[in-house]
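In response to reviewer comment 3 from the previous cycle, which asked for concrete evidence that the modeling workflow produces usable outputs, we include below a single protein chain processed end to end. The sequence was submitted unchanged, and the resulting structure tokens are shown without manual editing.
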Amino acid sequence: MAKKPEELTYEAAIKELETLLTQLEGGQLPLEEAIETYRRGSELIRFCQEQLKEAEQKIQILTNGELTEFDNGPTSS
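The workflow returned the following structure tokens.
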């Protein structure tokens, strides 16, 4: 049985999403299994979006709400 999203790390959820996507793209799943796979993927996407939102909020707190553009310096061509 698959873990509940809240029992996963962000990275584990992304890895599971990649696996589910591969299965769906393969086109070999029976209809009911494809529907369940799609449902699980949707659940994991919501979880990942929430995790990213929480991370952004933590970063805003750490930077006192001042988000700045990231500049990694000049790029070589």
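The two ends are 49 Å apart (CA to CA). We consider this sufficient to address the reviewer's concern, and the full set will be provided in the supplementary archive.
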